[in-house]
Amino acid sequence: MGKKFIKDYGCVVIFFIICVIASIAIPRFLSFNNFMTIIKQASIPIIVCVAMTMVLMTGGIDLSLGYMIGLASIACGIFIKSMGMPIAVGILLTLLIGSAFGLLNGICIQLLHVPAFIATLGTGYIIYGIAQIISNGETVNHLPEAFLALGKTKVGPFTTTIFVSAVVCLIFYYVLHKSTFGRNLMAFGMNEAASHLSGVNTAFVNLAVYVISGVLSGIVGILLTIDVNCAQPTMGGGNYTFQVITGTVIGGANLYGGKGTIVGAIFGMLTLKVIANCINLANAPYYFVDAIMGVIILIAIILENVKNKKL
Amino acid sequence: MLQKIKAQQKMGMILVCVILFVILGSRIPNYLTLSNILNVIRQSAIVSLVAYGMAMVIIVKGIDLSSGGVIASCAMISGLMMKAGMPVPLSMAAGLLAGAVMGFFNGVMVEKLEVPAFITTLVVGQVGNGLALILNSGNSLGGFPDSYVFLGNGAILGIPVSDYITFLFVIVAALIMGRTRLGTYIYALGGNATVVKQQGISSAKINYFVFTFSGFCAAAAGILLSAQMNTVHPQQGGNYQLDAVAASVIGGVSMAGGEGKVYLALAGALVIGFLRNALNLLGLHPYYQNLVVGVIIVVVVAVSMYSKNKQLEADQVF
Amino acid sequence: MSKVILKMQNITKYIFDAYGKPIHGTDVKILKDVNFDVHEAEVHILVGENGAGKSTLMKILGGIIPYDEGSMELFGQKVSFTNPRQSQEMGVGFIHQELNLCQNLNVAENLFLGRELSGRVFSNKKEMYKRSREMLMSLGFDIDPRTKVKNLSTAQQQIVEIVKVISYDSKLVIMDEPTASLTQAEIDHLFEIIRNMVKQGISVIYISHRFEELKEIGDRLTVLRDGSCVGTIDMKDFDHDKVVNMMVGRTLTKMYTCTHTPKENEILRVEDLRIGQGTEPVNIHVNAGEIVGIGGLVGAGRTELAKSIFGARKYFGGRITYLGEEIHGQTPRRMIEKGLMYLSEDRKIEGLVLPMDLVCNISLASLPRIFKNTYIKKDVEEKMAREMIGEIDVVCNSSRQLASTLSGGNQQKVALAKWLVTNPKLLILDEPTRGIDVNAKAEIYEIMDRLAGSGVGILMISSELPELIGMSDRIYIMKQGTISGELTDHKEFRQETILAYTI
Questions:
Q1: What is the pLDDT of residues C140-173, one digit of tens each?
Q2: Is the Cβ–Cβ distance between A239 and A290 less than 8 Å?
């Protein structure tokens, strides 16, 4: 039982160990305010971690995710501010764009058999180009108050953003762990041929995860825009994608498909933010974060593989 | 019969390119002049160098997404050494060595830990990019010795030095692939790893070499890039790996492994170079260039995968 | 009496997993005290049914897997190989059924792979082409060594492989079903080459199913059955029926249970179905409660036929009527909803999701049926799986055990269980007992009989003739993508009759 717990929720254990180490090493770490900061910082990327977990579970990868966030950001800015659309319409259109590009990824991968990392790298380029072109490289500022209120309204100690994140996590907890779709997704990631012959609609599953990834990227794009009160085509980007992959992998989703949990996605990203927070508290410059994250994911991959080889 | 169709496909690709460039040439003044051509080759040098290594890696069924990070960090290492007063050749050698080491590390991860190539190289690229920032506290570096700048901007007999480097590398790479036993092993590994093992050939050594070579090429590209700019920018790595993948695939290197020629990867890089140049001369913003390159990658890979699958279907007896 | 070059004594091998490691908790032997020897310059034929242990024995000789007990003596030297290279260096050449050539390289590169001729820096291609040409010509094979292997026919590739093996100075060459995909003219040519090899003092171990060739080429013949050596005879004493008896000679009645009686109503009718673009049409039908066997060689199109019906592959015209209704555009999912199941040939690749537990594997195909509103009730799922595990007697520690940890026979039962919980009306079983031990086989036959008794139609693809004969109510035989014969009378169910249609 204990073994199984560690195997399934190893990331939770790691999270607490790192927190303990951090609070011993850095006195300022252990405070309510600092903790709220970490949760706030992690809440938005957790949404795309959920998406990435599902994509990795199919054995694929979505490298266009960060660029999609940028396109979503500038698109909703243009819709709502420059074009003056009603907020609900603007958001819906933005999410529609996200799902459309997700579908494009899915089609390239499932129907045209383009390797996932090539397809999503390529569409990432395209999405980035489109974001730059429609914005002409400029940002959209001074967004309507009503729009900002969607994410910034305080409910108790939390902002609505965190509730959005929580709702997404709950929905996908059900989808991934309780529904037939989640089971099919898991089977598909572990053995595509066998699941197809067992009646799993593999094409649907594979298309769906990329569409989900596109939509959730859209939500993140909107939330980030609200957060900084500014729609930018450069929001997200390649580094953001990388951060999300790192968080997801720390959370225990593996890159060969099949494995992954929502709890893992949440705690993977939290762990990452704790580490970033420590780097910050230690007054190290921002540019250390990328390199350190790279090293962390390397260690995570090596450990994962050493573990697998032993078994 | 099949060979004929394949030959036609290849010819078709080249024909399309030629027609495209003739049309572009008729529309854009100075497009097809010798000096512009040499200039495009010079601008394509970076992508070409990366593409040689990339082609080899793809031939053994791998991929190297670390090139961007290698380009940034290795150039930064060389640059810092030169600024510290070290001789230019030594500094460059150190940069190249660093690239080779990073490539070798990729090889070890792929071979020994069986990590998928795209993941380990993605991560190493990230670390490389971070390293480039850390090494000089996030700042650029400029004002290098003349001999270094000459590599990037000088010309011998009216031809840019960069062009010589491009061709030197492609000759070396093509000789390795076509004339040595190592080259045969690289193709063999991409074609049928089981056979390679059975013949007692060490697949580890092949993988190490291929990834190391790719790292080395990327480092050379990074150094050449900063020589051309007379600056090392910590984020100069950009997305060169993607252009290099595109160049390889346009040049007919199969993503399924085992097939492809290094010199055709150069052709692919030049196709991209001329396209970017045309878009530039047409006055389109660089944003469109990314878009176009992205579309090309997806379309070319999709077409090649599609025809490969058709081929497999046709090969089936039933 | 010529010299003995290979002497295998009391070779025993326990059942092993895909990596050659023994599976824990089972002591099933795939080879039991096998004695086998080869003389110098002879063609020694090895026959036996599928799963008799031929390929395992040869893999041991080829150094691909080690043996667990016994001893092996090669050229007077005691050996125990840990990798194929060692065996190769001792002069054993192994020509696998699936050829081991790099398709993307040319003939010369393949012949010299791993031992290229080198100049100072570069390979000496000219010399390699010259020598390749000579080697090929010495076997009367006129082909440009610059040709890429993928542009050669299967027969030509096979000859390249033989040339390669001979060029390694092999003194003992293993040929695993070399004639499986060759035409008669090509077979004649191959035999000529083998005779030439024997003249040069090379011994050949020749594995084949094709009886009529054996007499022509062999010197001695050894029969394996269920992992044991039944005996070795001189080809002078070759008698067809005797060899068949040696291969089969077990208590047939005990293995196969046959209590069901086919009913009148038809479940499936396939008319003019073409499984390939140029193949002849297929016509078959299956009744309720009937077990219909499909025999034929591997590669005759049996799996393709099954997958075409199941909707897992494209076919080229024809009509499929299922339960009185013509079906079009079928996918596995839709067919499963209608109660038509396909148990795949390879349970590890296409059957089970090995890293998932037994419950998930068993419920996989019935999820949409049981949990209509997408919510998986874990207790319902668990109960269903447990009942099935008990009913067909899967040996396991827990229902949450991973499928990968089971033995082959139990894995096969789980794969079958997945279909049984869906309440099938027609089951297509593709090699249902391949690679599993005798007890598990008997149990699976019993399940099949029970299903047929309850009115389920069964279409069973099998390469094992005794199984076909023992279990079927009717037998179709396939050859080159179409039905070459149908046996309806139990009196006709004999190995010879089936073989006659097969080849």
A1: 777 888 888 888 877 788 888 888 888 888 889 9
A2: yes
Amino acid making up residue B29 = P
The helix/strand/coil state of C340 is strand
Q: How far apart are CA B250 and CA B293, in angstroms?
A: 11
Report chain B's C-alpha Rg in angstroms: 20
Of C426, C429, C414, C491, residue with least CA distance to C462: C429
Partners of C483 in the beta sheet? C478
Q: What is the CATH number of the domain that holds A193?
A: 1.10.3470
> Which residues of A are less than 8 Å from B239 in CB distance?
125, 238
Q: Does a structural domain hold residue A106?
A: yes
Classify C285 as helix, strand or coil.
strand
The domains located in chain B, with CATH, are 45-293 (1.10.3470)
Which of C103, C105, C117 is most worth mutating to test chain B (most B CB atoms within 10 A of its CB)?
C105
Residue contact C355–A190, C-beta within 8 A: yes
Distance CA C414, CA C401 (A): 12
A26 in a structural domain: no
10 Å CB burial of residue C424 (0-12, 13-18, 19+) is: buried
Question: Residue B131: its chain A contacts at CB < 8 A?
Answer: 291
Closest by CA to C429, choosing from C493, C344, C489, is: C344
Q: Verify whether the Cβ–Cβ distance C333 to A195 is below 8 Å.
A: no
- Where do the domains of chain C lie? 4-252, 259-339+424-503, 345-423
- CATH match for C4-252 among 3.20.20.140, 3.40.50.11740, 3.40.50.300, 3.20.20.30: 3.40.50.300
A187 contacts on C by Cβ (under 8 Å): 353, 356, 360, 364
Instruction: Decide if C368 and A193 are in contact by the 8 Å CB cutoff.
Output: no
Give the C-alpha separation, B85 to B73, whole Å.
Answer: 19
Tell me the CATH number for domain C259-339+424-503.
Answer: 3.40.50.300
> For residue B43, which of B232, B273, B301 has the smallest C-alpha distance?
B273
Give pLDDT < 70 ranges for chain C.
Answer: 1, 15-28, 50-51, 180-181, 209, 211-212, 248-254, 438, 503
Which residue, chain included where needed, has tokens 């609070």? A23
Can you tell me the distance from the alpha carbon of B71 to that of B89, in angstroms, rounded to the nearest whole number? Answer: 17
User: What is the ipTM score, two decimals?
Assistant: 0.85
Same fold yes or no, C4-252 and C259-339+424-503: yes
Residue B1 CA to residue B311 CA, distance in Å, equals: 13
Nearest-by-CA chain C residue for A185: C364
Computed over every residue of chain C, the mean pLDDT equals 84
